[in-house]
Structures are given as structure tokens and as C-alpha cells.
Amino acid sequence: MDFPTSHIDLSNVEAISRGDPQRMKKYILQFQELIPERLLLLKEALQTKNRVQIRQITHKMIPQLQFFGVREISVPISRLEYEYMSMSMEELEGIVSHIISTLERALDEVSKILKERFD
Amino acid sequence: MIIDDDPFIRDLLTDKLNQYFPEVKVIGTAENGKEGIRILNGANPQLVFLDVEMNDMTGFEMLGKLTQINFKTIFITSYRHYAIKAIRFNALDYLLKPIDLEELRNAISRFKSQSTSTEFQESIQQALVNFGNPNPKDQILSLNTQDGLLRIPLKDIVHIQGDRNYSSIFLSKGKKHVVSKTLSDLEEILADKNFFRCHKSHLVNKTHIQSQPNSFSIQLATDLILPISRRKRDEFTVWFNSQTWD
After folding, report:
1. Is the ipTM of this complex over 0.90?
2. Helices (H) and strands (E) in chain A, counts
3. What phi and psi, each to the nearest 5 degrees, are found at residue B22?
4. What are the backbone angles phi and psi of residue B78, rounded to the nearest 5°?
5. Number of domains composing chain A
6. Closest alpha carbon within chain B to A27
7. Do A18 and B19 touch (CB under 8 A)?
8. Chain B residues with CB inside 8 Å of A62's CB?
9. Average pLDDT in the B196-221 region?
10. Closest Cα of chain B to A73: distance in Å?
């Protein structure tokens, strides 16, 4: 199956699914379900400027983002892992906002794929 | 059995095990430590994939709550988690999320070939003791060797000398162990345990340092003199001068 994407890379999903569209759909639906929940928590943590919570939420998302090839934010997330306490609040807010907007675009892409290929 | 609070990881690991390791049967999954304890008290798995950091407790805390551990464990964690150092210090096995197939293959292979579950139980008990003893002098380093598991109290290690892929661990009573780990591997595990890399070939236990005869050498309590590399001299001198010697 060919999935032209720009924010996500479905190679890993395709590999684990071995051509089984139902299994592929299961992983994509899981992304569509889990990432918005975590984005909501991330937005709340950003509003309360809770550095520890921000790091915990982004840390928790790492495996799924790596699996879905969301490479655009791998460096910012990695920076949060190490510098979440030391970087300025302004920079931290900028990075988290970038992560949120990228993931929202990735979610749009996922919705489109689900609609066009799996409906 | 798989215990992880991330449904994505539980599904992914289950699928990978089912697809690539037909000899491994997943008998259950749990979404937190509490559920893990409940299931483990009724089931009898040979191997548990256990998340290091769950919402309700850490994987180590969960193991500490079990009355009996008659299974082996492979910890699963996100990359560069602080617990990796502790896992390695205790010679336990781990996989990085989102679970690379080759790494999983190697871990399954180690599970089949390595220590018995009794040895693993001892390792876990030792790890729990180490966690309860933040003072390095009370901790015991575990290393997997060709002859089995090697356990060395940190206070007995005087210094470690590296030679490419091997390291010689010199103990206070004159004994020596050679292990197939690089000095950098050991430095990473021991850096926050009062050890100091004084030279590219030497890692020294600070508690065994006797004196600094000159700016480029260290004298140990065993009278052995080790070199300090040029770029480490300032760091060492600052630390040495800050100590109160009896």
C-alpha cells in the first residue's frame, strides 16, 4: 500500500502489519486515540508551566512517535528530555508549541489516511 | 507476560512476539503494576516484560511487592531513561521502546541461554537491596561473565584497568577479575558511585586514593601509583584538595 505522507512515516506500521489492513488500522486508530489525550495533557501542563509534567508527557509519547516516524520533532523532544529544567520558560514554551502543532498536523494526516484508505 | 501502562507498547510487543517468536506464548498483559501483581500471583510465566516507569509504581517497586519471583524479567524503557544505569549496574536485561526486532531477538536468546530463574531472583533481590542503599559503599556491582554472574562489593574495588574490549578489576585483597566490558562501559555505570576516570586506561575508586604524590599521579591505598592524564589533572586536584583526609 502506498501512503504519501509528510509528517508521519508508516514504514514501521506496514512492517509489523505484514500487509494485513486490519492490523494496520489498529495501530493507526491507536495513534489517533492516544496522541490527542496526551496533547490535551501537554496543553494543560504548558498552561500551568509544569516543567516536570511536560517532560513526563513527551517522554511517554516517544515510542509511538518513533514508531510512526514523526522525525520532525525528535530533536526538540530529545532536548526536553535533558534540558526541561534548565532551558528558559520562553524556549520551553516555544518547543512545546512546535511539538503540539506538528502532532496536530500528523493527526490530520492520520485522519485522512483512515478516511481514504480504511473506510 | 507483558506489563506496561502504554497500550501501544503492549500491542506492539505482543504482535512482534507472535509473529517472530512462535515458541514464545504471551499468556497475559497488564496495564499497571497493581494488575501485574494480581496476575502474577495467579499465573506462572517464565518471562515478564516489565515497564520501568508505570503510572502507579515503578517496575522495581512492583517486583519488591511480590512474595516470590520465579520468572525472569526483561525491563522495557524509553531511551536514555535514568533507570538504565541502575539496570546495567545490576546486570539485568532491558529493551528500549519501541522495541527493535534485532534487540528483541538478542534478548530472547539471552533469556534462553543465560542464568536460571533462581539466579535471576538473586539478582533482583540484590538490585532491590542496592536501591535501598543509596550509599555506594554498601552496594554490590553485578556483572555477567562467561562463568556466570559475578558480584563485587563496590567498596572492594580499588581500580579498574581497561584494555580494549576487556577490563581488569583489581580488588583490595589482591584479587583480580577480568570482564568483557570496556572501561567506558564500566565508567558509565560507576560514574556516580564515587569512581573517577583518571586516565584513558584507568578508573579508580576514590575511596581507595591515598595521596597525590605529584600533579600527574595518584597513589592508592595498595601503594600502587596510577597516572592522571593531562586533561584530568585540574579536575582531580580540585576534588583531591576539597577532601578532608584523616
Report:
1. no
2. 5, 0
3. -60, -20
4. -75, 165
5. 1
6. B8
7. yes
8. 78-79, 97
9. 94
10. 15
Tens digit of each residue's pLDDT (9 = 90 or more) over B31-55: 999 999 999 988 889 999 999 989 8
Instruction: Using CB atoms, pick whichever of B16, B80, B98 lies closest to residue A63.
Output: B98
- Residues B31 and B11 occupy one common structural domain: yes
CB atoms A34 and B7 under 8 Å: yes
Whether residue B150 sits in one domain with residue B127: no
Q: Which residues of chain B are within 8 Å of residue A10 when distances are taken between CB atoms?
A: none
- Specify whether B122 is located in the same domain as B15: yes
> Cα-flanking dihedrals φ and ψ of residue A116, to 5°?
-80, -35
Q: Which domain-ending residue is among B81, B106, B131?
A: B131
In-domain check, residue A4: no
A109 membership: H or E segment, kind and range: helix A89-113
Range of the domain at B166: 136-242
Residue with cell 556516580: B192
Compute the CA torsion angle B154, B155, B160, B166 (nearest 10 deg). -30
B31 residue type, one letter: E
